[in-house]
Amino acid sequence: MKTNSLEQIGGTTLTDSTGRVIVLLLAFWGILCSQTVLAEIQHKNRVIILSDIEADPDDTQSFVRLFLYSNQIDLKGLVATTSCWHKSQVNPESIKKVIEAYGKVQPNLSKHEAGFPTAEALLKLVKKGLPVYGMQGVGDGKDSDGSDWIIKTLEEEDERPLWISVWGGANTLAQALYTIERTKSKEEAQKLIAKLRVYTISDQDDSGIWIRNNFPDLFFIVSPGDYYANATWTGINTYVEGINNESISNSWIARNIQQSHGPLGAAYPDVAWGVEGDTPSFLSLIPNGLNVPEHPEWGGWGGRYELSKPDFSTLQQGNSGVPFEPETREIWTDAVESYKPYIPSEHGRAVKTDTTTFTGNKVSLWRWRDDFQNDFAARMDWCTKSYEGANHPPVPILSHPGQIRVKSGEGFGLDAFDSFDPDGDNLSFLWFNYPEAGTYKKEIKIGGAENVHSVYIVAPVVEKEVTAHFILKVTDKGEPQLSRYRRVIVTISPK
User: Fold this and answer.
1) Non-local CB neighbours of 384 within 8 Å, separated by 6+ positions
2) Domain with CATH 2.60.40.10 in the chain
């Protein structure tokens, strides 16, 4: 390589010495934040979407958001399927319509971050399942483009898990599993199935419970049954008494997403039932410093889930006609947590805790709602605005590892002094303990102010080894305000 060659940095061509200096600075910065930031960038989560698009406008809404993160999530398939609400047809052309709108703004999105795929590349991912309901589409001779594509993707030389986000019925996945079991050796089938991670938006046909019963080792996240009012995923669009619900209002959507944001925003339909009910299935795949999709019990933008066998007697039947059956094994499912929000304070310390504590399984999702809605709005701005005219997320950087060990009753410090914002915005810091994410379930208070870059904490006295999760939230003061996080897992051992 010639030493005087041009360097390509962030879409800008730099020459000779200037380029080399910036390369060295970026390398140094990379060393500082490699423990979190670069690890997220290098490990894109693979996902195939199964969508009953046209059953409800919310699938189209979710595709608009999904494509705005298509540079951070490795999209491997976009499959049109049926569901209990859409039993006899599939509509891949509706997915293609959203992709065509995305293609018109992709060049501008690429000015803000690298890696946005072309519309042509996304169109090649569009497949379809059989236009039949549920288990009618599972069995000998019932393979489809969609089920074949799942198997083909699983067989790729890629050790990363393959997430299947199910927005409607799951029969295309069920057929892929059926075929794998009958065409592969036991060892090959186990290897392929071990790569799968499934998140279904409840059960929208009769194949979901069939999959869980017949593949007991399959990683599966679901709010079981079809009584959606109780499901964790509905936290994305549930009106919550006692908080500001503006970010899911129709006027907010019109102002920040639909209007004056180019062709992709114009493709976002009005809410018919609930806004973006399918989006939680991929929210936790977005690399933001909080999300760790392999650990649903740690919580993230898509909610928090615990591995358990639900109590069938406490569940309710909905009106979808989907079979209502007891679970035969443990699944990743709804988890209750308590949350006391921090709210802005006009004078003195910039934040204070609310007087109200919210408890329930939906809390684990809606507690992050303003953050991921602002993030959505900012990326929608990227469709039409220049880099200088839009906001970009801050970069939190810990001054220590993301996992530390301390002794019972010992004090320790957490610090994020080197955090910065790419737009030069002022930053706000917030540290808090997330009790439900660790094995120590009592809240551990932050010593002094929680909204400074460095905090001091005293570990509780324990008689056995426990873990405690502390979350750093860094928020800029751009428009809209954007947040990123770092998670510190503290192992506390007895003296």
Assistant:
1) 105, 108, 260, 261, 262
2) 393-495
CATH number assigned to the domain covering 45-334: 3.90.245.10
Domain with CATH 3.90.245.10 in the chain: 45-334
Contacts of 493 (CB under 8 A, 6+ apart): 405, 406, 407, 408, 462, 465
Q: In this structure, which amino acid lies at residue 474?
A: V
Q: What is d(CA 489, CA 465) in angstroms, rounded to the nearest whole number?
A: 13
What are the helix (H) ranges across 125-214? 145-154, 171-183, 186-194, 207-214
Strand extents, DSSP E, 82-229: 126-128, 162-166, 196-200, 219-222
pLDDT digits (tens, 9 = 90+) for 257-296: 999 999 999 999 999 999 999 999 999 999 999 999 999 9
Amino acid at site 70 = S
Q: Is the separation of the CB atoms in 143 and 178 below 8 Å?
A: no
| CATH of segment(s) 393-495 | 2.60.40.10
pLDDT in tens, 51-94: 999 999 999 999 999 999 999 999 999 999 999 999 999 999 99
